[in-house]
Amino acid sequence: MGRYVLRRLLQMVPVFLGTTFLIYAMVWAVPGDPFEGKCGERDCPESYVSAMRDRFNLDDPLLVQYGKYLLNLLQGDFGLTSSGLQVADRIAATFPVTLKLALVALVVEAVIGITAGVVSGLRNRGFLDSLVLVSTLFLISIPVFVTGYVVQLVFGLQLGWISPTVTSPTVGSLIVPGFVLASLSMAYVARLSRASISENRRADYVRTALAKGLPPRRVVGVHLLRNSLIPVITFLGTDLGAFLGGAIVTEGIFNVPGVGGLVFRSILTKDGAMVTGVVTVLVLVYLLMTLLVDLLYAVLDPRIRYD
Amino acid sequence: MSRARLVPAALAVAVVAAGCGAAEEGPTGSNTEAGITIFNTEPENPLVPGNTTEVGGSRVLDPMFTGLVEYRSEDAQPANAMAESIETTDSKVFTVKIKQGWTFHDGTPVTAKSFVDAWNWTAYGPNATQGASFFSQIEGYDEVHPKDPDGADGPQEAPTPAVKEMSGLTVDGDHQFTITLSEPFSVFPVTVGYEVFAPLPEAFFEDREAFEANPIGNGPFKFVSRTVGTDIKLTRYDDYKGDDKPKFRDLTLKVYQSRESAYADLVSNNLDFMEELPPNALAGKKYETDLGDRVVQRETLNMQTIAFPFYQPPYDNVELRRAISMAINREEITQRIFEGTRKPADGWVHPLMKGYEPGQCGDYCSFDEAKAKEAFAKSGYTGEIVLLSNTDGGHQEWAEAVANSIKNTLGVEARFVPSTSFGEFRQKVNAHEMTGMYRAGWIADYPSIENWLTPLYRTGSSSNDGLYTNPAFDAKLAEADKAPSEEEAIGLYLEAERIMAPDMPVIPLWTQFTVGGKSDRLKVANLDPFRALDLESVEVA
Lengths: 307, 541
Fold this sequence. Notes:
Helix content of chain B: 25-40%
Main location (chain A): membrane
Membrane topology (chain A): Multi-pass membrane protein
Shape of chain A: flat
Number of helices of chain A: 12
Keywords (chain A): Cell membrane, Membrane, Transmembrane, Transmembrane helix, Transport
Radius of gyration of chain B: 24 Å
Largest sheet of chain B: 7 strands, mixed
Transmembrane segments (chain A): 12-30, 101-119, 131-151, 171-192, 232-254, 274-300
Radius of gyration of chain A: 24 Å
Oligomer: heterodimer
Subcellular location (chain A): Cell membrane
């Protein structure tokens, strides 16, 4: 196990270098001068543009620029934005907010999705099964921004049950955006676990367990569920990564001051330092999440061993 | 109040009510101890006036600084604020007396030196400020801000200037200084209301970083705290000496991720003011049902135009330009596409400017099918007409309508060609690579007729992107610049506009009404002509 983890960690190094280089190259090589439009309708003074090009090493060849960036990164220095803010500080301020939002969404997704999946998977072709199938199909076909606006409009503006935007990012106030963020994946989780459960329901080990006279609750809860959850866990794990990076729409609608909005605004204002910094962190999160998921397999199914 | 904010205008505004403090009834029955929350976007620059030309930062700095003159919200005209008087006899040397007894928020006095030092600092090349070019008319600017030999993108550095101060600025005493320009410029006193001309306290020159974290101004509001990405809090400066004292205490500028989310807060009264509503609220006049009498609107200082690349045939053909202009049905497009929130333009100067004269464009700006066809026939051109625009600012709909209007009137193939991003579009405009006529727009830097002509149409000017040139027009502008008084200058600028009119260097399309909204809590909240909340007008119930 230890060796496996070490090997995986070492494999991350080239992946990390490759992805960050691609991001860096794409951010700084996008068409359009990064200082165009920075000074309103008129052009920026030359001295300002020169100073900024200096700060971001834009006059060096791309590889040298990237090398300098990486060297700073290894020392924990994410650099400054053009507004003079520490990129690291901004990440430290926004990341926990999005993490909270993503965890809320993950809990919603896992609890509701798995419950619905198990219930419908156990009663193949019953009323509950059809209900789950139809409602998940409905959820899958609506984009997140529609769900978000409808929830905000109906519950926030018309009924007044919730505040239309998030005033302070506490777990309680993030439940509604969390629901919206989770809605799509929730449907997938339900369908995934339903398929898995109904397939494993007829497996030999389930029949054996039932034949031994184990109570159905135990058969389903321990034997069946444990095996059936492997694809679901994979999905949930990568989904947490997706939530962290992809909360842009939800954060925008509910005004959550998280990473999604930060990346989005930085792209709009062509703040390359911020974009590369945040996306680098997101790459790391993705890599660690996939490792975590792989390790969880072994916990769920003892037959899977890494050595 | 500082409302010297004309330049960029990108996004809009809003507010969350943070009612606090013991309610004390003012003389008019308003709560003078209340706090209000208004919409903001995250400032893109360090909070220093000379280095801020974008909206998010200006909304913070405007209330914190008071310059020599401030623009009145009723008519956008400059009125003395910190200046006691600005006098000149030749439009070249200006003597400025400033009011006594004013202090910065840290208690230090505002003196002539506070202005001169701040201006010198902003203009000094190595400080690399965004606002430096606004000082280029002052004598000695070239010495403190030398040109980069191979342009900003080149590897060579601009030489370090030998001097740090412009020779055109001299301090004559604690409360008086003299400005000498390199060329006479009669409109100069109007320009100094712009925020980059704000004074700076000693503390700034001692420790710039500390100042950026905790800016100290001389305006009606002082800085309290900032949570990056969330909000900036200001509070009333009780020792403020100006006439524009606010009628409420605390001002929170809340950062929104999107204008749509701010609008939701505005509708539910969580936000007190937003200057410009998002497109989803404007569509079908949805805001009228959502907000009712909470809608705030007024005509503001921006103009939409179509510019011609004079370097690209056939757009150098004057008859063709006139034909195109007369083929555009401005009236119908402003009603159909903008539901009346735009007003057809009849000249190149904005109607809110002092001295504005209607109808300067003459027949060329009115829709006339017969005359358009006649001019088109005279031009001898028969090929297609191309209209280019970026689409990321809601420009697609009207650009298509304009192309259709031209097509139907002239019976010629007219096509709208979209460009994805504003940055990419501007880059092509600057590099003179436009392949057809293109969308342009102007928001005044300062409220003067001059600003609607010189930068845009004078030969070689900074924003004359289409490379229009007319010696008679240039000569008239030069004459106006030298005029001894503003009134005479205005007359000459109007003459210049008339000289330019038959050339149709760009097509004026329309000026704008900005639609904003306020919460129930605000009894009064007005927009100023620069698309910002007029803080002085705000009264809280």
